[in-house]
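Quick one before lunch.
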Amino acid sequence: MTAGTAPLPSVPPPSVPLLSVRDVTMTFPGRRGGRSAPVRAVDGVSFDLAAGKTLGLVGESGCGKSTTGRMIVRLLEPTTGSITYDGRDISRLGRRELKPLRKDLQMVFQDPHSSLNPRQTVARIIADPLLVQGMAAAGARKRAAELMEMTGLIPEHIDRYPHEFSGGQAQRIGIARALATGPRLIVADEPVSALDVSVQAQIVNLMERLQRELGLAYLFIAHDLSVVKRVCNRVAVMYLGRIVEVGDKERVYAAPAHPYTQALLSAVPLPDPVAERARERITLLGDPPSPAAPPSGCTFHPRCPKAQEICRTEAPLLRVAAPGEAREVACHFAAADNP
Ligand SMILES: Nc1ncnc2c1ncn2[C@@H]1O[C@H](COP(=O)(O)OP(=O)(O)O)[C@@H](O)[C@H]1O
Ligand code: SF4
Ligand SMILES: [Mg+2]
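Model of the iron/sulfur cluster complex:
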């Protein structure tokens, strides 16, 4: 049984979630004409996201974050499992049925410059999703100018090309494009990872303001826990295609229960220099294994400082670690650390 087939959280969400992901997997065929092993990039992932809220999705490079995000906006079809958006299972919809949904589900990418067509003007880039949905050219251009203003760009720059903008400004263009059709859910795939630290804060501020004004829900993907701390309400930590810990931000950051979350958090610098000098860093051995050949049992066991014999043979289920807690953990020994 995979971690994703674990029971659902015992604490029900306050209302029907905007997005429900249940036991979703994605298996890519082996490269080199199928001669190499297939890659189980996402392996039984389940989570909910409420309207207007942010779920942070965190984990090292290659753990399946982008694949998860791409399935949610249905750029990819999951191999198995279901994705329910606004009460409707969208996981198997075909291209034509997806078209009206594209208005609601949008994506912001990591590298703004490479995700914007260098040969198109900003007007065209931002207006394109509107033209696809059938809006007339003049109206789409007017809306593009409004979106530039809304995202802190100068509308007079509407006929410029992406290379004429800085990285932060280019990401604002990417956000404006994502907003064009009035989405309710945005998958932001490492939206600030490619930007200078000072610019990162500006983009995070912008995304927070837009969320408040427009009631957007975000799946906010990042490779470290520091980036999502401010923006998320809940956080999910992924390792090798599975969620190993998920719960309310306050709980996960204050008392991480999974050894992998503990290691990730120990790498985040503390603002207080005394606390920073005093605390212990947990260094993980080696790189994450390939999802084409995952380790047996708990796939984290070769790198886990707390691994015991059982960890080599039995995969831990994602389950509530302490009664009544709005947080789930996939570790045989999670409860022992958090009585
Ligand atoms: N189109 C693809 N074909 C084959 N393997 C892929 C493809 N896309 C991603 N992968 C593999 O799936 C795993 C997860 O990738 P990804 O979702 O991009 O991770 P992350 O975004 O967390 O870095 C990686 O091992 C990656 O090499
Ligand atoms: S189940 Fe074992 S190997 Fe896996 S995280 Fe927990 S202690 Fe570590
Ligand atoms: Mg990625």
